[in-house]
Amino acid sequence: MRPRLRIAWLALLLLASVALAARPRPHVLKRRNPTYAPLSDSSLDELVALTDLDATLDWTRPETTLAKLLVPRAVGSANLTRLQGMVEGHFRKLGWHVEKDTFDDSTPYGTKTFTNLVFTHDPSAPRRLVLSAHLDSKFFPTHPEDQFVGATDSAAPCAMLLDLATGLTPWLDRRKQRVEEGGGEEGREGQGESLQIIFFDGEEAFKDWTHSDSIYGARHLAHKWGSETDHSPQPVRATPRSPLRRISHLVLLDLLGAPNPLIRNFFPTTGWLFDEFLHAEERLGNAGHLWQGLEGEAYSARKGEVGAHERSFFVSRGGGGVSAYAGQIEDDHLPFLREGVPVVHLISVPFPKVWHTIKDNADALDLPTVKAWSLIVRLAVAEYLGLDPSAPIPNLNTPTEVKRDPRDLLSDEAG
Predict the structure, then answer these.
(1) Family per UniProt (predicted)?
(2) Domain interval for residue 51
């Protein structure tokens, strides 16, 4: 990615001191996404325990996913091909639908072959919430720079997405089954929306970032999906005419995993979804799931301290015109944004100090931060898609009874 920022960096740092509480959750949130349902208190602990985060993300253990990703993996390299196979195998084992978008394109070093990996839990669903990151690392022609592993850029985000799929697949399977048993939802035979995860190839420029030497995979996939239009004459369509129009929102993760990130909202139209990630962080932190030994009031006090390791990752939209300061980042989301796809860009601004240097290695990562990101994304996605197994699915064609934990009933009465 490339920054297009004309910012006084001091002003950016001062923004970190503003109040970090999210805006109140709007009562109309459900209108923004029909599948949305808040996670019950009784299910939060279950959500956190869906995977062993250390088994996936602790790079000091060579068998973990993140450890395997921490290698040079430039476009066309043997390492990238091997990792693409590892990622594909991971999703095939989970039972997801696999799409490989392979194509050739011209680069400053001649024609290269690229492969985007697209995984969809329920391809029959008409809408997709897309989570994405780029799998390739930046190409450097000389040593030692050619050993660049891109720990934050974007090995750690890719590991987070693999963990997301592992953790949520049982809940995604269960929701799909419940919808089918209920005769479908939203007037359809099946689910209204599903989760799709994309690993882009060729995000990095080979030389200098230009419109033609950058985001190769994202440009190709957005154009391909926008061109695949079904023109069959049907008066009423339950499914949008092109794959591009099936994307309800695209969330892009990049430059994550270093301590003390600052994540800000770039797009007013998706500010409500940005707030959902902030709310997820706040709820997990208050419950003591993000930082060891911190919960409740202690967490609330700590998350607002400038420079604290446990400081909130997010700059609130109420922090005083953040978007005007943040500018725009050129990244894999741009071709989709230009086609009208709603985007949330989870990227640290300012960029990590190690950006595009050989120092963007394991030493740049902070394991508690990486684990916190995985849980934040997991909770936000679970609520967006209404995955709580203990809660009723609100839009079933034939509503069914769901037994709820007595603790949740007491919480409802108290509220």
Answers:
(1) Belongs to the peptidase M28 family.
(2) 26-228+239-385
